[in-house]
Design brief:
Layout: H1 7-28, E1 30-32, H2 41-46, H3 60-71, E2 76-82, E3 85-90, H4 94-101, H5 106-109, H6 114-126, E4 128-130, H7 134-141, E5 146-151, E6 157-162, H8 164-171, H9 181-191, H10 201-212
Antiparallel strand pairs: 1-3, 2-3, 4-6, 5-6
Helix pairs in contact: 1-3, 4-9, 6-7
């Protein structure tokens, strides 16, 4: 008897799961990769919030194939957006993402370590390059670059960082008729009020320091 996690079975299940995810994205615009509180792929596939690592879930293979196929879909953008975690964004919200990413607002560069600044300069000059580690993750979380997960033939996962201009060219997206960054933030915040948006988190940390007098304190 075949296991519930048989790859062929999981791939067939993933077809229906991806369609459900695409319906959700078309309707709401956003979907977390994995989250127990906000709408997420893991929740849609499993039928309930998944606590801990989804790799331990009985439907782990189905979740894996669903995430892989959703990431490859032409109408879906995957980036670190909410709470610095992987978030899927429907194409209709790409102008909002681009407007925020290209705004060059203080929250994006405030307090960047020198290593992150140097890495950003290298990505800007090259258009794209492979890089991993804390500096790369920080640039992604600040929307200063877009990160792509690369699956190598050896089974290893590597990360490629690219400028938003490179991302736009690769996806046939034009930076025309973009909303203002303020309008774009309001649009996203209206979908998930109170979520951990990257432009709000630094403000909360700053307010927490003022209130408690301790570095790193937060009102969250």
């Amino acid at each position: 008897m075949k296991s519930r996690n048989d790859a062929a079975v999981a791939q067939r299940e993933a077809v229906a799961a991806v369609q459900a995810c695409l319906v959700h994205l078309a309707r709401h615009g956003l979907l977390m990769k994995a989250d127990a509180r906000l709408p997420s792929v893991t929740t849609l596939v499993a039928g309930a919030p998944v606590g801990g690592s989804w790799w331990a879930h009985p439907l782990a293979h189905t979740i894996f194939f669903s995430l892989r196929d959703l990431e490859d879909h032409g109408d879906v953008l995957l980036l670190k957006l909410v709470e610095g975690k992987d978030t899927f964004v429907h194409r209709r919200l790409w102008p909002e993402i681009a407007a925020i990413a290209l705004a060059g607002e203080p929250w994006q560069t405030r307090g960047l370590p020198s290593g992150a600044v140097q890495l950003l300069d290298r990505v800007t000059a090259a258009g794209s390059l492979e890089s991993e580690g804390p500096a790369a993750r920080l640039l992604e979380a600040r929307l200063l670059v877009h990160g792509i997960q690369i699956h190598s033939h050896e089974g290893r996962h590597r990360k490629r960082l690219e400028t938003w201009q490179q991302w736009a060219a690769r996806n046939g997206f034009a930076f025309s008729d973009l909303p203002s960054a303020h309008e774009a933030r309001e649009t996203l915040e209206s979908i998930w009020p109170g979520a951990g948006w990257p432009w709000i988190a630094p403000l909360r940390q700053k307010q927490g320091r003022r209130k408690d007098g301790a570095p790193g304190a937060s009102t969250r």
